[in-house]
Amino acid sequence: MKVKNTPINAMGKEELATLMKRVSNDVANVIAKTYGPYGANTLIQSTEKVYATKDGWTVAQNLNYPNNGVCNALKKLIIDCMQAVLLNVGDGTSTVSLLANSIYERIYDQFIMSKSQINVKILETALNEVVYTICNELADMGTPITESNQWDIIHNIASVATNWDKKMSNFIAEIYCKTNNPIIKFENSGSDKSYVKYINGYEIKGEMLLKDTYITDHTTGKCDIDNPIILVFGYPVDENLFETLILIANTFKAKENRELMVIAQDFQPKFISTLKALNMQLSRNSMGRVPLIPFKYYNNLNIDKDCVDDLCYLLGTEMVATDNTDVADMIKDLKESLRAKKLIDQMDTPDPKEKDTIYENCSMTMTAAHKYLTEIGGTCGNIVLTDKYLIAKDFTCAKMDIIEQRKKNLIFEIETKTKECAALSRITEGIRMKRIRLGKLQLNMGVIYVGGFGDAHLKERRDALDDATKACESVYESGYYTVGGGIAPLIAIKTIKSKDNDFTQLEKELLEIIQSAYEDVVLAMYKNKFGQNDPDAVKTSLRFINTGIDKKIAYNLITENFDKNLISPVSGEIEILKGCMSLVMVMIGANQFVYHDIQSFQDLERLSAIAVTEDVSLENAIKLNRQS
Question: How confident is the model at residue 240 (pLDDT cuts 50, 70, 90)?
């Protein structure tokens, strides 16, 4: 019997190393064209439109090998390591790809494919030692940020990331100095104009209902309420609660001259129409407005719910839920008292004793409800409402310890989630949302409203701003900066070479490889200005690079001068090198590759169809496909 010779889905060391080198080269060559201030825009086709970007990370995400699942799997390995740096630093993904590619190319030629192959474990140990030494030297090179230089440092870091967009750099530096809050929100301005607004307090998204009745400033369309009593409902408020809430509102107005603010995820139309009619009646009689102001909060995303929960902590109240028996019993008692009072009032000749008893019971119930609501109701000095948001501010100091604990919990959750995402090679929207919540809990936050000439220009500006804010946050949180322009690691390596060290011959060779790789990365930036294949341009570039290393001042490609304001976060330089090494270690450490049979999305669709037709799992559909 003749046995069919079917190849196994495993790739050996040399074949894998060669393919990995090819994929790494392909990704790096595309990203290199976008690198630095003179990097070119790349047109990217999405499912709905074509847009332009020079953001290397965006370009890398969209690269694909049609009908080649093996290459796509190896490309994803590179993307995953870039993601880990994005999570930890927020910028530098392009540098990771270029640096790792250059290091791997040299290790591939010098060690992997050479006759005298070195044991991988020995190579990894030596690499770790060299990288550890460079990282320590980079840390020693750091200059601290102080109150006196903070604006300049943040502005200079932002300038580099935004390609010297002076307006945006000023916005970011101004926000840092005014808020001391490194988390900045972005919104589209809806025009070609960009501007900054500040949220002084805690903001949740939603809308003020019956705004024509409750607006206090018709110029801005805002309703300003001082010292309200606040109830937050976790369910829609219907007409059955109307009389009870009106009685509560009138009681607080009469006893304390405070209005009742009702915040709920929705209000039934009958409740709003009844409230509107009552307000119109009071207006006709020149009696002001009903002291009950409704605000509907948005409940579409998880962050909306979390932000309302955070607001409750700040206000010192609990959200009224359907299963809250204490509040339910209080409302029930009030309803029964009001019903009894209403019935006795409708009688033509009520029993005086019975009427007095009902009135007394109603008064006692109302007093008890007032006392209870004073204890559980939320309070703050001021609330501002619009048809888009609510901002609460002037919280009591007694609650600040709870908020500090809340912020610490969020920081811990963000750090934990970041580590999980780095390990799982996945960036989640949850991290970004938690960061926004953390920023809002600072109670003083800057929002940049970004303008642009069309969607493509707007996306380009937002991508640059995203890089800038993350780089600024990195330097702000670490507290140290160093020379920019990509030469800080080269200065560190030069310093290491000038010292007495006990490096082995292998470690010295690896140090040379890393130095040459960094030179390649900086040259990629220079080539985008001076030309890709011009020998004279390369010589000029190398002269600028080496002079910058000697002076410890980077050359500014835009101003064409050595510029001491061209700086970089120390933590960013270190994390980029570590991220690069994690990719290089995987590339040199893999001895074989067991790959999946699915080569393309078309194959996946076809196999899924087989699974449905044959009523089997996708794994069994793959086996059936092999047999056929």
Answer: confident
CA atoms of 523 and 538, how far apart (whole Å)? 8
Are residues 566 and 471 in contact, defined by beta-carbon separation less than 8 angstroms?
no
Whether the Cβ atoms of residue 621 and residue 610 lie closer than 8 Å to each other: yes
Distance from C-alpha of 168 to C-alpha of 153, rounded to nearest angstrom: 14
Distances (CA, A) of 275 to 22, 231, 245, 289: 70, 17, 11, 10
Q: What is the DSSP string of 131-189?
A: HHHHHHHHHHT-EE--TTTHHHHHHHHHHHHTTS-HHHHHHHHHHHHHH-----EEEE-
28 token code pair: 């790096």
The backbone torsions φ and ψ at residue 141, rounded to the nearest 5 degrees and listed phi first, read -75, -15
Strands 260-264 and 229-233: parallel
Report which residue type is found at 278.
Answer: L
Rounded Cα distance between 187 and 450, Å, is 6
pLDDT digits (tens, 9 = 90+) for 550-571: 999 999 988 889 999 999 999 8
Residue where the block lists tokens 């102001």: 293
Instruction: Residue 545: name the closest of 568, 562, 528 by CA.
Output: 562
Nearest to 295, CA basis, from 268, 262, 271, 249: 262
DSSP helix, strand, coil percent of the chain (3-state; round to 5): 60, 15, 25
Dihedral in degrees, nearest 10, Cα atoms 603, 605, 611, 614: -90
Angle subtended by helix axes 618-627 and 601-614, to nearest 10: 100
Structure tokens at 302: 């998880």
228: left (phi over 0), alpha (psi -120 to 50) or beta: beta
Per the structure block, which two tokens stand in for 369? 């409800």
User: How far, in Å, CA of 231 to CA of 283, rounded?
Assistant: 25
CA angle 209, 330, 334 (to 5 degrees): 75
- The three state secondary structure string of 201-213 is CEEEEEEECCHHH
Average pLDDT, the chain: 83
Nearest 5°: phi and psi at 63? -70, 145
Taking the model in full, what pTM does it have? 0.74
Q: HSE-up of 64 (CA within 13 Å, CB side)?
A: 9
**Spatial distance between the Cα atoms of 72 and 446, rounded to a whole number of angstroms:** 40
Asked if 269 and 302 count as a contact pair (C-beta separation under 8 A), the reply is: no
Cβ partners under 8 Å of residue 306, min gap 6: 433, 437
DSSP codes, 537-594: HHHHHHHHHHHHHHHT-EEETTTTEEETT-EEEHHHHHHHHHHHHHHHHHHHH---EE
Which tokens is 432 given? 């970004």
Amino acid symbol at 594: V
Query: Cα–chain-centroid distance for residue 527?
Result: 33
Closest CA relative to residue 237, chosen from 207, 266, 210, 204: 266
In this prediction, residue 614 carries a pLDDT of 62
